[in-house]
């Protein structure tokens, strides 16, 4: 059945972007109005299309690459989510980008990104998918490059890293198409043998690099500092996560039909666990609001990969639920970061403090989102994490341990972030800070509201959004919505969270003599007893443990920087050296050139004769 | 050793001498000598027409032009001559090496006549006729090459009246 | 009638050089431009009366052996586009009417050679017209009589002679085997002895000669010296089309119509192609001069075409032909950008030029389009040709070569991005704050070429139907 209506979500933002480019610079309000209108229209279109099924196919690039789009539950769901975030972040950006350079370029890139995301989600042909996927690379580059003056370097780095991963994916797509004999995603079924396995790994590299997993993450923290903030909220925090995990799910569920017995399952789980733990360790020692959040954006991707990697229905559902939850709270967190940046003029934690009194609404949003990401019940992150835990525990205790450790450190680092930015004494230079404007507040409040809704009423998103994705698979009985099935796990989680909280209290107390003053929370009568016990070294083994953790955090951060150096300097240096050596061979002496040519000819002759 | 082999070796010697000598006049003589030997070879291989062309143009006309040009130049001083000789040696040291190398490779490759002889119907038209008579299109090409040569001379050697 | 594409430029040259008044000679660029436009129009609108082999008195008189197919059409179009650009930019850059006049004549002469090469059906004629193009190119390179340009032209002559020697030797061997020089007869003659080592040697010699002409590693060494020292508008012509026709296209034609794809020759071609891709891209990274970098990039991109060609499947050859067309467009565009920068700043050295993006926005953005197309980013035309090449390599189970081709795109991106950053982004150097956008002719040409790149990418289904599939049928 031909449904040209599927063109609509691709065309709306694209046309709006084209219109923006043709609007004269003088009509600034028109630029914002057009963008908002397009994003709203896109949201309406996505809402209308959600839950319907449709296909559209047109002859296109030949050789099996026909322009085929497919709308079904999963793609409709991702598209709806992307449209929501697009709309919210755009509302926010209208104020945030006011008066900044390149505002028009930003909106154009933004709308084009939306269009490309819709296209990539709807694509039912690998080449079509690649077309939109690589297009996103351009908007990624453009959006980072229009940030701070020194952002071009970061943009180049992101472009190269993501570009290499996209090329891997291109190779994987070619290989998969060659092996399967078709390029239609819904028709590909491949076994995980030698070549099929290679194709799988290459495709996974493409998918998880888009999701921002390790070891392809190192541009994200830099971009967090250099790019305009709404970029972080829309691309790495939401659209790219949605796309990457969507495609990972398509690869593992549809194209390769992973089973828990195959080698690919532990492969994905190990990547997920390493990402969770290593990235969160780095987050612990960050001193910048946005940079800290960006490490969490990496770490949380690990939970989704772990969940899907378990190949158990409950894990997959948990992973996908975590994907949408993460997009919600991380977008919200980045938006609070943007508010702080705009109002206080800095995101360096050493220059912040006590903002809760000046920006109560922002603080409230932060609290909800931070509680969600830390997995505090009854917010949404709690439920999705519980499902991932359950699946991880069923596969192997070690995976569960890694995930639980990640949870602990996540909670710890958000306690630190909230404490440093919003609590504590108000700094002298922040006295005149005011609450953000309502167009920026509104998206944050809405998203925070959805976080609460998805948590308290978690059966609704699970039943209506996630579960239909798996279809008959979810009939296996795992993971009933509502209260998590495994009560033991819930208790362990509660203990972990409590531990994190106590740890923070103790830590703040000990550091209190130095930089950070002790806030009234720590003097609260209920907690002071624990606090005194901490002073009397009741928690001593714990302090030692923290020391180890701290060292490990430093170590992994060092490794992370080394990896960055590897990408940034090592490879570049090796290549440049090779290039210089080759360039120096061109002496300008034509007799040398003759020797090369004749030698080449002789070698060719010998090869053919031999 | 056949006569052809001897001639080919002399040809090789003449070309090397042409390149290696430091006097332009000697180089021109070497070039003419090369052409003469080539003419003899062509004659022996049964291409008298090509031989005559080679003799008249490459051994006759071109050296005359070269000698005329050389007569306008000045001789080098002896010191410069020494330097020039050294430079030349440095620049073309590889020539003998290259020749030896090519020879070695070619002796390693045992090329035997491993194809059937040309079929009689393909030979119905004489190869010489193919290479010399049936070439209307190449005539256009030769006109074009000549034109290009004329343009080259004009561009490089004719003074631009507007530049004076 | 297609032979008119050889005779017409020749006739234009003759008429121009009749002793008319100077005022007439000033119209030379106009006439030249019109010829290229006519050629492009003939390809695009494809009037059957022109292309079909209908008897007409002209051809009866000249008795030429020519033929055209879909592959030739792609080349005719590329020649027309690049020639038109070279005429416009050259006429704009040369203020002296005399030089301008000679430029047009020489461009048309080189075009005679290339157009003939595209449609001849005889090995010896191929050689003759190669020389026509080559001689015209030598003079073009050295036209401004700069020291570097003369040196570059000399190197090109020497290396071309080596190539000619290889090809003539091969021709002699082939005549020995088959007794003929026409494509058809040689093909039939070679078919009689498929296992002959002698024949393989002859093939590889010819192929090596073409490698020199096309500038493929390790036969490439003249390329950077020549492209960097020639005037930019000549480099447009050389890099855009001359080396592509006289090296790559003839290789394509010979493999498809004469030699066939022999396994060991195929392996040599593919290896050399892959080597060129990598070496060219690596060397480009280390360059500090824009034009020299473009020259190395050219080597790398020719490597893609040669690699695909060596693969030998119909799809691969079609991909190679499309990449050849794309390369003609985007490399011309980049050299036109170089011309614009050279005109305004007096140099193309990357350390001395910076922050031009804000001063020369059109030049900056069109060069971004060209570099993205070179690197193969959708939706530009370069993406499709690279995709075709890689799909073809994978389908032929050449996984290693596919990976090499793919990952060299990263190097391409790297060197172009570093160029872009140095030259167009950032703050302008002292003394460069008042630089203006290049002249209207340059800007116009840049926009046209960028438009072709974007258009061919967006309208890819049309390109597929009218160019790629027919080329595939020629091979298959």
Q: What is the strand and helix layout of this fold?
A:
The complex is a heterotrimer of chains A (610), B (164) and C (476).
Chain A: H1 7-22, H2 28-49, E1 54-58, E2 67-71, H3 73-96, H4 103-122, H5 126-145, H6 151-180, H7 194-211, H8 219-226, H9 229-255, H10 264-284, H11 289-309, H12 313-344, H13 355-358, H14 360-374, H15 380-395, H16 397-422, H17 438-456, H18 459-470, H19 487-511, H20 520-523, H21 525-535, H22 540-585, H23 590-609
Antiparallel strand pairs in A: 1-2
Helix pairs in contact in A: 1-2, 1-4, 2-3, 2-4, 3-4, 3-9, 3-12, 3-17, 4-5, 4-9, 5-6, 6-7, 6-8, 7-9, 8-9, 8-11, 9-11, 9-12, 10-11, 10-16, 10-22, 11-12, 11-15, 11-16, 12-14, 12-15, 12-17, 12-18, 14-16, 14-17, 15-16, 15-17, 16-19, 19-21
Chain B: H1 3-20, H2 24-44, H3 48-71, H4 78-92, H5 94-108, H6 127-132, H7 136-157
Helix pairs in contact in B: 1-2, 2-3
Chain C: H1 4-16, H2 22-25, H3 28-45, H4 48-51, H5 57-62, H6 70-93, H7 97-119, H8 123-141, H9 147-178, H10 183-191, H11 197-214, H12 222-229, H13 232-259, H14 263-285, H15 290-311, H16 314-345, H17 356-359, H18 361-375, H19 381-395, H20 399-423, H21 440-458, H22 460-475
Helix pairs in contact in C: 1-3, 1-7, 3-6, 6-7, 6-13, 6-16, 6-22, 7-8, 7-13, 8-9, 8-13, 9-10, 9-11, 9-12, 10-13, 11-13, 11-14, 12-13, 12-15, 13-15, 13-16, 14-15, 14-20, 15-16, 15-19, 15-20, 16-18, 16-19, 16-21, 16-22, 18-20, 18-21, 19-20, 19-21, 21-22
């Amino acid at each position: 059945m031909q449904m040209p209506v599927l063109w609509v979500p691709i065309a709306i933002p694209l046309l709006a972007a084209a219109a923006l480019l043709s609007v004269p610079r003088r009509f600034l309000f028109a630029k914002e109005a057009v963008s908002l209108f397009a994003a709203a229209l896109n949201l309406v279109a996505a809402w209308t299309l959600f839950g319907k099924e449709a296909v559209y196919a047109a002859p296109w690039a030949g050789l099996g690459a026909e322009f085929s789009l497919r709308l079904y539950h999963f793609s409709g769901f991702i598209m709806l989510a992307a449209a929501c975030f697009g709309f919210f972040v755009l509302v926010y950006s209208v104020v945030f980008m006011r008066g900044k350079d390149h505002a028009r370029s930003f909106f154009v890139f933004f709308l084009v990104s939306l269009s490309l995301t819709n296209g990539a989600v709807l694509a039912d042909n690998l080449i079509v998918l690649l077309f939109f996927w690589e297009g996103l690379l351009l908007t990624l580059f453009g959006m980072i490059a229009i940030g701070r003056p020194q952002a071009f370097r970061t943009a180049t780095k992101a472009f190269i890293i993501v570009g290499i991963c996209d090329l891997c994916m291109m190779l994987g797509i070619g290989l998969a198409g060659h092996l399967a004999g078709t390029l239609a995603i819904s028709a590909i079924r491949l076994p995980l043998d030698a070549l099929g396995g290679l194709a799988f790994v290459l495709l996974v590299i493409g998918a998880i690099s888009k999701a921002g997993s390790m070891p392809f993450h190192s541009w994200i923290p830099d971009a967090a500092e250099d790019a305009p903030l709404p970029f972080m909220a829309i691309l790495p925090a939401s659209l790219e996560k949605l796309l990457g995990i969507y495609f990972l799910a398509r690869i593992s569920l549809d194209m390769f039909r992973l089973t828990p017995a195959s080698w690919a399952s532990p492969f994905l789980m190990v990547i997920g666990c390493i990402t969770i733990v290593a990235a969160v360790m780095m987050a612990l020692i960050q001193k910048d609001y946005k940079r800290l959040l960006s490490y969490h954006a990496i770490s949380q991707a690990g939970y989704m990969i772990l969940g899907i990697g378990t190949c158990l229905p409950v894990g997959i559902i948990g992973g996908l639920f975590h994907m949408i939850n993460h997009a919600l709270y991380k977008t919200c967190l980045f938006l609070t970061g943007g508010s702080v940046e705009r109002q206080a003029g800095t995101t360096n934690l050493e220059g912040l403090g006590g903002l809760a009194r000046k920006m109560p609404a922002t603080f409230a949003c932060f609290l909800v989102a931070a509680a969600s990401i830390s997995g505090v019940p009854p917010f949404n992150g709690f439920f999705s994490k519980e499902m991932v835990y359950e699946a991880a525990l069923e596969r192997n205790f070690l995976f569960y341990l890694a995930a639980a450790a990640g949870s602990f450190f996540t909670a710890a680092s958000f306690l630190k972030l909230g404490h440093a930015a919003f609590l504590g004494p108000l700094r002298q230079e922040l006295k005149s800070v005011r609450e953000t404007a309502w167009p920026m507040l509104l998206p944050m409040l809405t998203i925070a509201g959805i976080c609460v809704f998805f948590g308290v009423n978690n059966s609704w998103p699970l039943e209506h959004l996630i579960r239909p994705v798996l279809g008959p698979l979810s009939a296996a009985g795992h993971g009933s919505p509502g209260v998590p099935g495994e009560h033991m796990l819930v208790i362990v989680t509660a203990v972990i969270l409590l531990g994190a909280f106590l740890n923070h209290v103790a830590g703040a107390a000990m550091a209190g003599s130095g930089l950070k003053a002790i806030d009234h929370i720590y003097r609260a009568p209920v907690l002071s007893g624990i606090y005194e016990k901490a002073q009397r070294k009741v928690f001593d083994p714990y302090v030692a443990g923290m020391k180890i953790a701290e060292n490990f955090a430093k170590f992994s951060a060092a490794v992370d920087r080394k990896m960055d150096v590897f990408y940034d300097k090592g490879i570049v240096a090796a290549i440049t050296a090779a290039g210089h050596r080759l360039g120096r061979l061109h002496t300008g002496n034509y007799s040398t050139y003759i020797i090369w040519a004749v030698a080449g000819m002789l070698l060719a002759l010998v090869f053919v004769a031999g | 050793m056949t006569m052809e082999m001897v001639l080919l070796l002399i040809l090789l010697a003449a070309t090397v001498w042409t390149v290696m000598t430091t006097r332009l006049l000697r180089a021109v003589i070497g070039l003419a000598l090369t052409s003469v030997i080539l003419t003899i070879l062509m004659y022996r291989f049964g291409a008298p027409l090509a031989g005559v062309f080679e003799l008249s143009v490459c051994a006759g006309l071109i050296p005359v032009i070269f000698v005329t040009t050389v007569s306008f130049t000045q001789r080098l001083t002896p010191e410069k001559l020494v330097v020039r000789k050294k430079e030349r040696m440095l620049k073309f040291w590889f020539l003998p090496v290259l020749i030896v190398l090519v020879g070695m490779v070619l002796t390693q490759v045992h090329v035997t006549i491993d194809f059937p002889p040309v079929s009689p119907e393909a030979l119905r038209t004489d190869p010489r006729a193919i290479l010399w008579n049936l070439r209307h299109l190449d005539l256009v090409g030769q006109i074009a090459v000549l034109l290009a040569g004329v343009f080259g001379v004009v561009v490089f050697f004719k003074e631009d009246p507007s530049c004076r | 009638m297609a032979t008119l594409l050889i005779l017409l430029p020749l006739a234009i040259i003759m008429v121009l050089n009749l002793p008319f008044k100077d005022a007439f000679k000033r119209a030379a660029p106009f006439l030249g431009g019109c010829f290229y436009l006519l050629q492009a129009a003939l390809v695009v609108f494809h009037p059957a009366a022109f292309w079909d082999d209908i008897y007409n008195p002209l051809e009866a008189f000249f008795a030429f052996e020519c033929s055209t197919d879909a592959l030739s059409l792609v080349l005719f179009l590329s020649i027309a586009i690049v020639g038109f650009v070279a005429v416009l930019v050259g006429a704009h850059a040369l203020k002296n009417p005399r030089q301008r006049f000679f430029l047009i004549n020489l461009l048309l002469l080189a075009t005679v050679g290339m157009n003939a090469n595209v449609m001849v059906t005889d090995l010896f004629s191929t050689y003759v017209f190669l020389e026509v193009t080559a001689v015209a190119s030598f003079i073009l390179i050295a036209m401004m009589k700069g020291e570097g340009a003369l040196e570059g032209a000399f190197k090109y002559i020497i290396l071309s002679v080596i190539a000619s020697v290889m090809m003539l030797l091969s021709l002699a061997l082939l005549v020995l085997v088959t007794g003929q020089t026409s494509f058809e007869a040689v093909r039939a003659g070679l078919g009689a002895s498929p296992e002959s080592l002698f024949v393989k040697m002859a093939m590889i010699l010819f192929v090596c000669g073409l490698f020199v002409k096309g500038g493929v590693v390790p036969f490439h060494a003249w390329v950077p010296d020549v492209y960097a020292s020639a005037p930019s508008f000549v480099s447009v012509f050389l890099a855009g089309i001359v080396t592509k026709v006289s090296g790559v296209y003839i290789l394509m034609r010979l493999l498809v119509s004469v030699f066939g794809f022999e396994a060991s020759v195929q392996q040599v071609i593919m290896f050399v192609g892959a080597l060129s891709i990598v070496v060219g891209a690596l060397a480009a990274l280390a360059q500090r001069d824009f034009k020299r970098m473009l020259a190395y990039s050219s080597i790398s991109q020719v490597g893609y075409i040669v690699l695909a060609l060596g693969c030998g499947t119909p799809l691969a050859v079609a991909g190679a032909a499309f990449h050849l067309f794309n390369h003609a467009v985007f490399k011309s565009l980049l050299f036109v950008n170089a011309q614009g920068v050279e005109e305004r700043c007096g140099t193309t050295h990357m350390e001395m030029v910076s922050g031009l993006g804000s001063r020369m926005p059109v030049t900056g953005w069109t060069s971004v389009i060209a570099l993205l197309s070179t690197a193969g980013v959708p939706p530009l035309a370069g993406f499709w040709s690279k995709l075709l090449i890689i799909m073809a390599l994978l389908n032929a189970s050449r996984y290693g070569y596919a990976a090499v081709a793919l990952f060299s795109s990263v190097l391409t991106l790297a060197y172009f991005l570093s160029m872009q950053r140095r030259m167009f982004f950032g703050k302008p150097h002292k003394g460069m704050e008042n630089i203006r956008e290049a002249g209207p002719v340059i800007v116009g040409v840049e926009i046209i070429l960028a438009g072709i790149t974007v258009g061919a990418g967006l309208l890819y289904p049309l390109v597929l139907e009218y160019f790629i599939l027919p080329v595939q049928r020629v091979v298959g």
